[in-house]
From TrEMBL:
E.C. no: 2.3.1.-
Protein name: GNAT family N-acetyltransferase
Entry keywords, A to Z: Acyltransferase, Transferase
Uppermost EC category: transferase
Pfam family, one: Acetyltransf_CG
Origin: domain of life: Bacteria
Domain N-acetyltransferase: 6-92
A single MF term (Gene Ontology): acyltransferase activity
Amino acid sequence: MESDIRDNPAMSRFEMPIGDGAIAVAYYKVEDGRVVLLHTEVPQELSALGYGSRLAQGVFEALRRDGKRVIAKCPFMSSYAARHPEYGALLDG
């Protein structure tokens, strides 16, 4: 699943293709060496199908693999991390 997620630093976002040219994205900024997750978007017509959770899992897995600390300002990412304690060690703030 993580392999579906790619970091696009030029646009400050993680991207997950979901077919027919559509993508789900998680915007971020880097602040004091930490990745601040700001906003998550899934195309409206594809919401509630689990794509946001797949994206969140892939983002957290990629950040864990890279040894990054995370601040989850995005309500969706914060909520996802709260429901998945395996990512708690990544969180700051």
